[in-house]
């Protein structure tokens, strides 16, 4: 009787895993989507742990590096975030969100002058132009303040 009902339901199932556990044959896209969903409810430390494992498993997955960078920022570790965004940009040089986040990370790491060209490159970007423009003004001032 149970099997007949399960057949009618399409034989679907749900597997819940502890952070750090992997299914036998994970699909990268589904895993990354699940990691992003998990990040929304997890502590920043738990999220970073999942993203670190994800980039170890799929080092060519740009969204995994974005997640790792964002989780590192959430933990107050802009240097780790910078490293993750730089790796993402090696994979996808035109990734606008990564360029913006990298610029913010560089500025927060005390390297505002390195952030300037990244922010300037976003001046014509539809979604990020306003935000990048505001950040550019702040970063120019910080860069001028750092000048000898």
Roughly how many Å is the radius of gyration?
Answer: 20 Å
Structural class: mainly alpha
Instruction: Tell the overall outline.
Output: elongated
Q: Strand portion, in percent?
A: under 5%
Put simply, the count of helices is 8
Overall pLDDT level: 91
Order of helices and strands: HHHHHHHH
The profile of the biggest β sheet is: none
Query: Low-confidence spans: pLDDT under 50, at least 5 residues?
Result: none
Helix fraction bin: 55-70%
Q: How many extended strands?
A: 0
Give the N-terminus to C-terminus distance in angstroms.
Answer: 80 Å
Explain this structure.
The chain is mainly α. The chain has eight helices and no strands. The chain has helices at residues 2-8, 28-41, 44-57, 62-74, 78-91, 96-108, 112-120, 129-146. It starts with a helix and ends with a helix.
SSE diagram, text form:
Elements: H1 2-8, H2 28-41, H3 44-57, H4 62-74, H5 78-91, H6 96-108, H7 112-120, H8 129-146
Helix pairs in contact: 2-3, 2-4, 3-4, 4-5, 5-6, 6-7, 7-8
């Amino acid at each position: 009787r149970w099997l007949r009902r399960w057949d009618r339901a399409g034989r679907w199932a749900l597997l819940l895993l502890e952070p750090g556990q992997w299914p036998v044959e994970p699909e990268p896209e589904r895993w990354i989507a699940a990691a992003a969903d998990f990040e929304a409810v997890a502590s920043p430390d738990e999220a970073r742990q999942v993203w670190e494992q994800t980039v170890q498993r799929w080092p060519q997955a740009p969204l995994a590096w974005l997640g790792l960078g964002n989780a590192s920022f959430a933990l107050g570790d802009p240097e780790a975030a910078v490293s993750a965004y730089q790796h993402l940009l090696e994979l996808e040089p035109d990734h606008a969100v990564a360029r913006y986040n990298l610029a913010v990370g560089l500025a927060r790491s005390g390297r505002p002058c390195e952030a300037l060209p990244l922010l300037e490159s976003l001046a014509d970007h539809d979604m990020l132009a306003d935000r990048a423009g505001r950040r550019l003004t702040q970063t120019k001032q910080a860069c001028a303040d750092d000048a000898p």
